[in-house]
Amino acid sequence: MSSASFDPVTADAIAEPSPSREELQEAIEQLMAFRDRIVSDVTGMGQKLKMPQQQVAFTLSQHPELQRIESVLAQLQLQIAELA
C-alpha cells in the first residue's frame, strides 16, 4: 500500500491547463475594478462621516480585502511576466 494521500487541490491544478495571458489580464482588470469600487465606497463613507483624510487613508491601508486584492494582483502580474 502506498502512504501517499490524494490531494484534490493538486489533482485539479494538474488537470486544468494554465490560464492564458488574456485570461490573466481579464482577471487583473476585474480585480482592479473591484479594488477601485472598495476605495470609492470607503472614501465616500469617510466623507459622509466627515472623517479626516488621514483616517480614511489609514482605514484603506488596513482594509483586509484590499490587502488580499493587492496580493492576488501581484501574483497575477508575476504570472503574466513569466509568460513573456
Rg over C-alpha atoms, rounded to the nearest angstrom: 19 Å
The SS-based structural class is mainly alpha
Major sheet: none
Spans of at least 5 consecutive residues with low confidence: none
Total domain units: 1
The count of strands amounts to: 0
Helix content: over 70%
User: SSE string, helix = H, strand = E?
Assistant: HHHH
Mean pLDDT across the residues is 88
Describe the structure.
The protein has one domain. The model has no long low-confidence stretch (mean pLDDT about 90). The chain starts with 7 loop residues before the first helix and ends with a helix. With about 80 residues, it is mainly α. It is built from four helices and no strands. It is elongated. α2 packs antiparallel against α3 and α2 packs antiparallel against α4.
Question: Topology of this structure?
Answer:
Blueprint: H1 8-15, H2 21-48, H3 53-62, H4 64-83
Give a summary of the structure in a few sentences:
By secondary structure, the protein is mainly alpha-helical. The chain has helices at residues 8-15, 21-48, 53-62, 64-83.
Task: Name the descriptors.
4 helices, 84 residues, mainly alpha
